[in-house]
Amino acid sequence: MKKTAIQAKDIVTRFGRKVIHDGVNILVNEGEIYGILGKSGSGKTTILREMIMLHTPTSGQIEIFGEDILSLSQQKAQNLRRQWGILFQFGALFTAYTIGENIAVKLKEFAHISDSLIDDIIAVKLKMVGLELDVARKYPSELSGGMVKRAALARALAMDPKLLFLDEPTSGLDPISAERLDELILELRNLLGLTIVMVTHDIDTIFTVADRIAVLGDKKVVAEGTLEEVMQDNHPFIREFFGGHRANTRRQHGK
Q: Model pTM?
């Protein structure tokens, strides 16, 4: 029986009079790559921000590893945050820090370990994401878009998380870099046993890496399941999204 990593129940999110979510339900199993899709404005990134405690929904419940994150003490919330890493859409690296310093931020804040051990961890994480050790001495402005994403991923992995959140991981990348990043995400999940939640609109990423997906529409989850299950749904957005030329091409060539 699969264990539940994340469960969002009856999430309602309002910004003033505008309702973004009106009863959103999501279930993420441990060890899977779970994609969240939807049109612009459907609340994809908002639900991700609620999962990582950067925004509080108007009502509902979110449990991560069995903990109700909306009622945690500050200390318990801090402990839970240490169990996940986050890759933001544009990397969100600190521009005044070197890549090594970026990776070391959470280690210095939470790990209380020696500088030499931190240096060793930086080297391991860079290798893990396919970057050379000399990248540690460079600044984000000196890297290509693909390298920035990999460096940000190395930072997300610094504390050996059980859970990884990815916000549009291939956004802004050329097709070759995006494909390589997709392959890396799969490799890391298989190597480290990660649970991965990603917000994406990239049809290639969905076909390549997602085990299950949720589609947001009409302020709710209009479909959830494997790619094959979701593609059977007749919701207009799903028909439009998966009925286009790129999706048909992916189907013809297999996942």
A: 0.89
